[in-house]
Automatic annotation (TrEMBL):
<dbReference type="InterPro" id="IPR036734">
    <property type="entry name" value="Neur_chan_lig-bd_sf"/>
</dbReference>
<dbReference type="InterPro" id="IPR038050">
    <property type="entry name" value="Neuro_actylchol_rec"/>
</dbReference>
<dbReference type="InterPro" id="IPR006202">
    <property type="entry name" value="Neur_chan_lig-bd"/>
</dbReference>
<dbReference type="GO" id="GO:0004888">
    <property type="term" value="F:transmembrane signaling receptor activity"/>
</dbReference>
<dbReference type="InterPro" id="IPR006029">
    <property type="entry name" value="Neurotrans-gated_channel_TM"/>
</dbReference>
<keyword id="KW-1003">Cell membrane</keyword>
<feature type="domain" description="Neurotransmitter-gated ion-channel transmembrane">
    <location>
        <begin position="119"/>
        <end position="205"/>
    </location>
</feature>
<keyword id="KW-0472">Membrane</keyword>
<dbReference type="Pfam" id="PF02932">
    <property type="entry name" value="Neur_chan_memb"/>
</dbReference>
<feature type="transmembrane region" description="Helical">
    <location>
        <begin position="176"/>
        <end position="195"/>
    </location>
</feature>
<dbReference type="InterPro" id="IPR036719">
    <property type="entry name" value="Neuro-gated_channel_TM_sf"/>
</dbReference>
<dbReference type="Pfam" id="PF02931">
    <property type="entry name" value="Neur_chan_LBD"/>
</dbReference>
<dbReference type="InterPro" id="IPR006028">
    <property type="entry name" value="GABAA/Glycine_rcpt"/>
</dbReference>
<keyword id="KW-0407">Ion channel</keyword>
<protein>
    <recommendedName>
        <fullName>Transmembrane ion channel</fullName>
    </recommendedName>
</protein>
<keyword id="KW-0812">Transmembrane</keyword>
<dbReference type="InterPro" id="IPR006201">
    <property type="entry name" value="Neur_channel"/>
</dbReference>
Length: 217
């Protein structure tokens, strides 16, 4: 507490708290998050306690402190004044206008980890599965082995990486990526099955035509 000669009283205190933020992960890992901290009085209405930001540098933070997954893009202050209920009892309560400060923290996720651990490996597996298109259609063991190997590799990689992903009830962007990769690999296997089926039918009809031609001679 500091008391000036003109009677102005300046009081400051330090409060340490652990803050949680509900993240919206529909675009994970290319998401941008908006977290905020609200500061308001518990029992004093705006007529008793009025809160306001400093006009100069209301919020300061150490730029050398960072987060492993996020980059702090912006920190700003705003107001969240509103009407709230207080003095709650079993049969009554009071309603008053409260002064409220709101600190906005804007975060941008770093995609480097997911790029190295998820996107590049799964993309390479899909590209490897396309190699079967250039293998001779009669090389059945080679094409089947390659298709099943890439499919199993992609499934194993996806299951291992999902343990480190946030558990939410809706689909994330990376889930759609895994689904698309799985679809491409499965379509490569399906393409071989279709080609092999048409090839066997073609050989059957070719044998019938040759037999018919020889019988006409």
């Amino acid at each position: 507490m500091f008391i000036a000669r003109d009677g102005t009283v300046a009081y400051s205190c330090r409060a340490t708290s652990s803050i949680s933020c509900s993240l919206k992960l529909a675009n994970y890992p290319m998401d941008h998050q908006h977290c905020y901290i609200r500061v308001l009085s518990y029992g004093h209405v705006a007529e008793q306690v009025t809160m306001q930001w400093f006009t100069r540098d209301p919020i300061t933070h150490n730029h050398e402190i960072g987060l492993p997954e996020f980059q702090i893009t912006n920190v700003s202050g705003s107001y969240c004044n509103g009407t709230y209920r207080y003095a709650l009892t079993d049969t009554s309560h009071k309603i008053g206008n409260f002064s409220c400060l709101k600190a906005n923290i804007f975060l941008s996720r770093s995609i480097g980890y997911n790029l190295v651990q998820s996107y590049i490996p799964t993309g390479l597996i899909v590209i490897i599965s396309w190699v079967s298109f250039w293998i001779d259609r009669r090389a059945v063991p080679a094409r089947v082995t390659l298709s099943f190997t890439t499919l199993i590799s992609l499934t194993t990689l996806g299951n291992g990486l999902r343990f480190g992903l946030p558990q939410v009830s809706y689909a994330k962007a990376i889930d759609l990526w895994y689904g698309a990769c799985m679809l491409f690999v499965f379509c490569a296997l399906l393409e071989f099955a279709v080609v092999n089926s048409y090839m066997r039918k073609s050989e059957k009809y070719d044998h019938i035509s040759k037999t018919f031609v020889n019988s006409q001679r």
